[in-house]
Amino acid sequence: MSSSSSPRGFALSSRLVHWVMAVLILAMLGLGLFIAHSSTTHYVTLLHLHLITGVSLLVLVIVRLLNRFVVPTPELPTDLTTPMRLGAIGAHLALYGLMIAQPLVGWAMLSAGGYPITLGGSVTLPPLIAPDPALWANLRQLHTILAYSFIAVILLHIVAALFHGLIRRDHVLSSMVSGK
Amino acid sequence: MSQTSSSRLLRWGCVLLPPALLAAGFAWAAGLFSPHRLSTARFMTVLENGGGAAPGFRRAHSKGLCVLGQFDASGAMTAYSSASVFSQSHIPVTGRLALAPPFPHIVDGPGIVRSMALRLQPDHAQEWRTTMNDPPLQPMRDIQDAFASFSANQRDPVTHKPDPRLAKAYEAARPWLKTAYAANRAHVMSSDFANDTFNSLDSFQVTNAQGENHTVRWSMVPLSPPDAPVRPEDAHDPNVLFTHAIASLHQQPLRWNLVVTIANPSDPVNDPSQPWAPTDRTITAGTLTLHSSASEDNSPCGGMVFDPTILPSGLSLSGDPLPALRSAVYMRSFVKRSGEAKDPSSITPAMTQPH
Ligand code: HEM
Ligand code: HEM
Ligand code: HEM
């Protein structure tokens, strides 16, 4: 069972930020894929929604990291095999890496392309880097590669979470759902 | 035994079904189940089949010249729009004069659509990018027309030429484009870039400080006298229009008035193929002065995109369906060419130097 210093479930703040970000990230992946693969008269509106949500997610991941260092998190079940334990830690690290990198790459790529990033009215996000067309092409490709990697890791993460809850029937799924 | 194994199967189903459905949702968003959905990639394919997809060059308006200058607002548009570009003077301008076909080394000639793209960058205020062509109307009214039109211009893989019957069929199937074709055929081309009128074709919305909206189109109307007629020794210059523009700019600045047309309530504001009433109110918003030129090979106008949806606050999209489409397709063209090694342009840096 969990040691005395670590709680059994995730604190409310951790669960809240996990689920809010999960919904937003899934929506962003779907939205990004849709705008990149359809010609629609709503393109500009949808891309704007993508930018605003992407920047909000960047703010949220900072909040999440701060929360993670302040609020204690439960430990993985002690009876997990080493590969499963490493897999879980690796997947969580990858998810954090992608949550930080994807919006930064989005911001950097539009800066490299010389696009102004308007948040609303006359509020503009300052460019992260100077215009550089070759870098723009590479970062745009990186945004796609990261997006597909994100999808792959999230799918694995969901399979693992449901495996814990329905097959192993340990406390991992409930630790993030109900905090128990 | 069988009960536990079937409940085990059920539980595995509950583990795998949700991620499988999610993956299917992503595949749908990416168009995997909808091969007929129009997409940026399909637009790029038909555009590239219409030209050579020359590496490093724009996938349309491929042959061009960078121009530098300034814009001085008259102030008359401030009643309609709060955008700084309509109230400031000495606004730095980077632009590009181009020929519309997707061929970077096309021989200049009369009858080829010409264009002017501009980026107005006021100090401490949002920039404005705008693109204009010289025909009076756009022979397409929506995204479907645009796709059909570029599809009809693809080159036959055997003859390497577009099939003129396809363009005829495109026109014949669209009685709503009759007016646009008639107007464009009746349009008399000017001799040069310097004395050409360039039109936004698409409509946009302006908003003033009181929050009132109007739909507008705009044109750059030339103030410069026409250049001298083509001299016999220039007749064989494949870049004659550009050499003229460069030579004129060495002699004196070239100037245009930005004339904004305010739609009246009965104008077809969401259809770039239809004319507006000739009695519509027009406002001279300011004057564009171009004072020098540069090759796109060593000027910033090469490595940037004139996306017509980059608008300062006070200017926004109207219900015209084309600018959104263009934004996505221009981005893809800009990504592709930025990742490719580029051959020298027809208009080289040496050609833009004074002799
Ligand atoms: C967690 C945050 C984000 C996620 C999950 C995400 C996801 C995606 C996805 C899946 C695509 C489609 C990629 C493709 O199929 O090629 C995409 C495209 C794009 N994203 Fe993001 N993105 C995020 C943040 C951002 C941010 C912050 C920006 C800009 C500030 C941005 C700008 C763009 C742009 C410009 C495109 C290209 C659209 C097009 O090709 O027409 N993204 N994004
Ligand atoms: C869609 C985006 C998602 C992301 C980016 C994400 C990210 C993460 C991360 C980084 C953790 C580690 C704990 C933390 O520091 O917050 C975590 C834990 C967890 N997630 Fe997710 N998650 C997502 C979706 C989901 C979904 C859909 C489920 C449920 C099916 C889920 C179930 C869990 C569970 C049960 C844990 C606890 C694992 C443990 O005890 O260490 N997650 N998630
Ligand atoms: C409504 C009228 C349109 C106007 C006034 C217009 C005007 C222009 C102009 C002036 C340029 C050249 C910009 C430069 O010199 O850098 C340009 C480029 C281009 N146009 Fe259009 N255009 C129109 C419609 C379209 C449509 C419907 C499409 C296809 C969907 C299209 C595809 C392109 C592409 C791919 C480029 C090259 C973009 C780049 O790589 O920078 N245009 N257009």
From TrEMBL, chain A:
TM spans (from-to): 16-37, 43-66, 86-110, 145-167
Protein's cellular compartments: Cell membrane
InterPro entries (alphabetical): Cyt_b561_bac/Ni-Hgenase (IPR011577), Cytochrome_b561_oxidase (IPR052168), Di-haem_cyt_TM (IPR016174)
SUPFAM superfamilies in UniProt: Transmembrane di-heme cytochromes (SSF81342)
Keyword Ribosomal protein belongs to the record: no
Pfam families, sorted: Ni_hydr_CYTB
Annotated membrane topology: Multi-pass membrane protein
Every Cytochrome b561 bacterial/Ni-hydrogenase domain range: 11-179
Obligatory cofactor(s): heme b
UniProt keyword list: Cell membrane, Electron transport, Heme, Iron, Membrane, Metal-binding, Transmembrane, Transmembrane helix, Transport
Annotated family: Belongs to the cytochrome b561 family.
The protein's name: Cytochrome B561
Annotated source species: Saccharibacter floricola DSM 15669
